[in-house]
Amino acid sequence: MISHSYKEPKLDRVFCNFFNSTCLAVAHLGSNAPTQARLILPRQHDRNVHHLWTACYRQEQATRTYLQDPLIIDSPAEAVCWVKAHPKVTVLGTNLVLEWLEAAGLRLGHNFQFVSLNVENRSDLTGIRESSWEVGAEAAEMVVGRIHLNRTGVPKSPHITLIEPTWQQGDR
To answer: Averaged over 56-82, what is the pLDDT?
Structure first.
């Protein structure tokens, strides 16, 4: 399975190391020392990665005073209101959050800075590249290996393989 979002059945899985994604993003923020930064995530996105983005962010928040409490939201209005009230803030989030902010008339680079937790093959964005090709290749290799070993069905002890993310400096 190439996912972290399904709990059952417990299958072998391959996905990006979401915890380290946030650590990498915060490390790059530290080099630019923003006055305020905040993780803003739709509640479902936070659940889909088993709160790993939030877990790392909270760990980093203990030593980085510019990191505000994460904002886990159910509606775009919550993100828009907060960013409008905090000009020049740096937002860490999924690209959906960026879409919400821009749809509300806020301009990236003018009203806020943005670090994507998954740039999704967009060279214009700054943030985390999840290395989806490597995830797919590893998953295919895992399937072929299971076939060669005649391992079928739900495994007794499922394996999880994490692929490390990389940093991308975008144009925006």
So the answer is: 94
Cα 150 to Cα 146, 155, 161, distances in angstroms: 6, 12, 20
Q: Which pair of tokens denotes residue 49? A: 């990665």
> Would you tell me which CATH number, out of the four given (3.30.470.30, 3.40.50.12780, 3.40.50.620, 3.40.50.2300), belongs to the domain 13-168?
3.40.50.2300
Q: Per DSSP, which regions of the chain are E strands?
A: 13-16, 37-42, 71-73, 89-93, 112-116, 127-129, 160-163, 166-168
**Contact in structure between 155 and 6 (CB atoms under 8 Å):** no
Residues 53, 70: Cα–Cα separation, whole Å = 10
Task: Based on DSSP, count helices (H) and strands (E) in the chain, helices before strands.
Answer: 6, 8
For the entire predicted model, the pTM comes to 0.87
Digit-coded pLDDT (tens) for 17-37: 999 999 999 998 876 666 789
